[in-house]
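[job 0417] fold request received: 2-amino-thiazoline-4-carboxylic acid hydrolase
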Amino acid sequence: MTDHATPILTRRRIEAAILKDVYDVLLSTHGAKIALETIRAAVTQSAISQGKAMATGFDHAPDLLDVMEILKLWTQDDALELDLISSSESELSFDVTRCRYAEMYQDMGIGFLGGVMSCQRDGSFCQGINPRITFHRTQTIMEGAKFCDFRFTLNNASNGDQ
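[job 0417] inference complete; emitting C-alpha cells
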C-alpha cells in the first residue's frame, strides 16, 4: 500500500537512514560491491512494487498525463523544482533544477548512495506503473550536473497486455 499522507521526501529520509545501516553491515561483512548491489536490488524491487501499487488506483493503464499527476507527490514540500518542457498522454519531459532529495542525502553524509537510493527509482517505478512507459535521463544533480533531464515516452504498441 502506498502512503500518500507522508511526503515522499520524508519517506526517503527514513528509508535512507535504514538503508545506510544495512549498507554499513553489508560493507563490513561482504565488501563494497555486494553492499551496493544489494541496496540497488532492494530499491529497484521497492520502486517496481510502488509503481504497481500506484497503478491499481487507476481504472486504466496509466499514461503520462497520469504520471504528471503523480509528479505532484514527488514535488510535494518543494522536494523538486522543475521546468516542464512537454506533457501529453504519450510524452512527458521536464528538467529538475533543484533536488532536495540530493541535498538531503548530502546532509545525511550519504551523497555517494543517493543515486542508488533515489535516482535509480525513476525508471524502475515506470516498470511497475506501466511497462509500456520508457524513461531516459542523461544526467542528474546527484552526480553533479546542473539539472536532471527527465524524459518519458509511452509506447502505444499493444502486446496484448494493458
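[job 0417] notes: The first strand starts at residue 80 and ends at 87. Strands lie at 80-87, 91-99, 133-136, 148-154.
[job 0417] exit 0
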